[in-house]
Amino acid sequence: MNKTESMLMNIAAITKVELCVIEEGKAENVLTGEKLSMDNGTIRSRIATILSGKSYPVIIIDDNNVFFACLKEKDTRFLLGPVCVRPLSGSELRKHYRLHHINPHIGHDPKVMAFTDFLNLISLISCTIGGKSYNHSELLALNNLPESLLLPNRHEQILFDLSADEDTSYHHTYMDEQSLLSCIREGRTDDALMHTMTLDTQIGRMSKKEYSHWTKLCAVSITLCTRAAIEGGLTPAQAYRISDFYMQKMDACQSIPSLISCRNQAITDLTDRVASKQNNIRTSSYVEKCRDYVSKNYMNKIKIGTIADSLGINESYLSRIFSRETGNRFQDYVNIVRTDRAANLLTYSEEPLAHIAEYVGFPSQSYFGKIFLRFKGMTPRQYREKHKPLEFTSITQS
Predict the structure, then answer these.
(1) What is the three-class DSSP state of 358?
(2) Domain limits for position 177
(3) How far apart are the first and last CA of the chain?
(4) Are residues 272 and 187 part of one domain?
(5) Based on the number of CB atoms within 10 Å of its own CB, is 203 exposed (0-12), middle (13-18) or buried (19 or more)?
(6) In whole angstroms, how far apart are CA 393 and each of 169, 182, 384?
(7) Are residues 295 and 379 in the same domain?
(8) Claim to verify: residue 123 and residue 207 sit in the same structural domain
(9) Which residue has the higher pLDDT, 360 or 48?
(10) Of 25, 29, 47, which is closest to residue 38 (Cα–Cα)?
(11) Alpha-carbon separation of residue 161 from 148, 169, 392 (angstroms)
(12) Pair (362, 309) in one structural domain
């Protein structure tokens, strides 16, 4: 998988908007990995025909006020959608399925999002696949659509406000920002980049000019991540040297893709250094592989014997060297990782304790509480009450 494909997969996974890639007579849903039919009766084939010869993003609005977008890069076409500004009623959904020849038993309801967010997503994908971004007015003008679409009628606005009010939107943006900073403090580079891409689609406009907006957004991202890296263990001098380097590098950027790439390099550099700092105790390759396995599989049942078998060594031997070089028994280390992940969820989410316990791999809520108390010195509920951000508390209580 190349870098562009990886970024598209992350965008689809984060936004939950269907993204289909059409090339050489084949189509695939990036969100689900599903291979799609190219029958002439399908919406994908019809939109692929509509896009023939057009290199700019094409926006289609069907009779149900459901939106699609189609983009083209060389011989590959990208279909984005369906999206609508409010949930469809039962009759509207049936009409939607009939109109697009979709099996209602396997079809997905259109994603609900503001039209302006849909335009932002089109621009982000265009920038990812071809290096070209568009502002809202440009996308509307290219498709001969009225500017009034940026101001939904009163009926649609009320319905949209009911399904996704402004306070909730800002709340989720704040939560994603906190998740990003947690990833940097913990040295989790891949997760940090994924949360960064989430924020790219959620942050409000910082400037009416597209290039200026991305310049400011990237600068703010680097600044926030620098502070998180210091909290993760880097010295201020080291962190600010890295920040200054990438800020100066951004000054030489001539395009939005180069700005985003520079920003992502800065986040990768900072997070990798935090991870290196936190793992500066020399351990054997076997222990490193144990830690890597736990990091990727802590949500599932883990047995050191499984790891030992994959390494071709004795279980008892692996257990001894792990304890000697880390200072923790293997199962204790697994529980430390799980409680650390649970602590973040307790701080930055409203999920019930039972859901958090299950998510991080504990067999029951009671066992989760027992282990959490052992390693954190307080119960999960006490930890949540003590560490809940003030902004989060005020939102949930309002």
Answers:
(1) helix
(2) 168-278
(3) 45
(4) yes
(5) middle
(6) 15, 18, 11
(7) yes
(8) no
(9) 360
(10) 25
(11) 18, 10, 20
(12) yes
Same-domain pairing of 131 and 198: no
Taking the C-alpha atoms of residue 80 and residue 59, their distance in angstroms, rounded to an integer, is 9
- Pair 131, 263 in one domain: no
Per-residue pLDDT at 380: 94
Backbone angles phi, psi at 232, to 5 degrees: -85, -5
pLDDT in tens, 30-56: 767 777 766 544 555 566 666 666 777
Q: Are residue 145 and residue 270 in the same domain, yes or no?
A: no
- Whole-number Å distance between alpha carbons of 119 and 205: 13
Alpha-carbon span 128 to 132, nearest angstrom: 8
Domain count, the chain: 3
Report whether 348 contacts 182 (CB < 8 A): yes
C-alpha radius of gyration, the chain, whole number: 24
Alpha helices by DSSP H, listed for 111-254, are 115-130, 136-142, 154-163, 166-186, 189-200, 210-231, 236-251
64: left (phi over 0), alpha (psi -120 to 50) or beta: alpha
- Residues 256, 210: Cα–Cα separation, whole Å: 8
pLDDT tens, position by position, 213-269: 888 888 888 988 998 999 888 888 889 999 999 999 998 888 888 888 899 999 999
Closest to 367 in 3D by CA, of 290, 356, 348, 300:
356
Angstrom distance (rounded) from CA 381 to CA 390? 16
Give residue-wise pLDDT tens across range 343-354. Answer: 989 988 888 999
